[in-house]
């Protein structure tokens, strides 16, 4: 029975990879298509990459999204790490239910509701404090951090709960303060989880359309908003070229990070 079972598993795995990666590969192939029609191959050409680098609006949107995603991932990882540590190590303190509910709210609240709530908050702040003067990069960043830190907290909480506490307890017995234990022992042990949480936050921020649509202002159009507005009028080959560059950049980063992690584990 091992033969048929193995064949079925291989077939299922192959179909899964087919549905996942064939659309991505076809997108990359058609980014080199000479035809302006994205579904009709007429010959190899780099014309759409030239058109992409001449498209100032698309490049500005990409640069803005990269900036927001990087700032969001960093802030969400810092805040979410502390939140996840509290959930994993502090027990059921007074107000734990309220704390857990508020932290988990962005995971279950529809992004439309979250976007409207944040927009109303900024409007009220602008009327009361005169700040922020307008919606833009800062307001989008706040919205993305609010969303992403909840995901970071879940990742970090699960990693810390699975850790062996003997090292931390030994350090505490030797006189180290809880803060010293966290930075000297706990934090180095959860570095892979931190990297995963940062990448997850970066991807969520870079991919977001709903929150950015509510919180953006004139001159602050993110890449997903720009692409979405263009797709509604018809898919352009420049978008295929941009997506190909994104895929190659992300794939390179993942391969390099994986090689470094494997090398580190081998050396240790």
TrEMBL record:
Keyword Transmembrane helix: yes
Source species, domain of life: Bacteria
PROSITE patterns linked to this entry: ABC_TM1
GO CC aspect terms: plasma membrane
Gene Ontology biological-process entries: transmembrane transport
Compartments, as annotated in UniProt: Cell membrane
CDD domains: TM_PBP2
Short name of any one Pfam family annotated for the protein: BPD_transp_1
Keywords noted in UniProt: Cell membrane, Membrane, Transmembrane, Transmembrane helix, Transport
Span of domain ABC transmembrane type-1: 62-257
Transmembrane intervals: 12-32, 62-87, 99-123, 138-160, 181-200, 239-260
Membrane topology of this protein: Multi-pass membrane protein
PANTHER family: PUTRESCINE TRANSPORT SYSTEM PERMEASE PROTEIN POTI
Family note: Belongs to the binding-protein-dependent transport system permease family. CysTW subfamily.
Entry protein name: Putrescine ABC transporter permease PotI
Organism from which the protein derives: Bordetella genomosp. 1
